[in-house]
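Worked problem 6 (solution included).
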Amino acid sequence: MSESSDERVDARVERTKRVLQQAALTLARDGRFDDATVAEITEHAGVNRSSFYQHYDDRQVLLADAIEAAEIEAVEGLDTPTDVPSHLPASMIAFLQHFDADADLYRRLLGSRGSPIVVARIRARFEAQARAGVISSGTTAFEGLPIDIVAAGIAGSCMSVIQAWLELDPRPSIETAADWVWRVLVGPGVPIASERHDSES
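Solution. The predicted structure is:
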């Protein structure tokens, strides 16, 4: 079955966006994105300036898309837990590994002079994952609280711990960071993972 013209156009669009995102990510990792012009970004991507403006009207949106694509790739194939977990889920560990591999970049992005658009996107992804996890787990630990408030609280806690972890020098291991995130989430009281066990006893 031959490829339609619409499919070819869509494929070209995706390729162009992908090379622009990769160029933005490379420049950001090198600490050069903030001062890079659209011309420098497109030159690095190997496309013309008009290609940029066909897909983006803001450099920060391009960077946010690039970061989002990299994070989605980092957790690809990892499911949201469908039961109350007893430790930090694999998808969150994968996020920590991704942040650790790009620690310099994320320190800049999450810092006081970082990108508000990028931070908002990261927070939104954390909130979506937290919302899905709480709903699917069936936990009653947050009974009486709106799910959006619960998700926002979990996301904010995770991001604060991760940001503080990235700022430490020397930086503790991913395993240590995972333990910190988990202990902040379950709090000083009875871990939510014990609820189901208690109800079944």
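Discussion: The chain has two domains: 5-56, 75-200.
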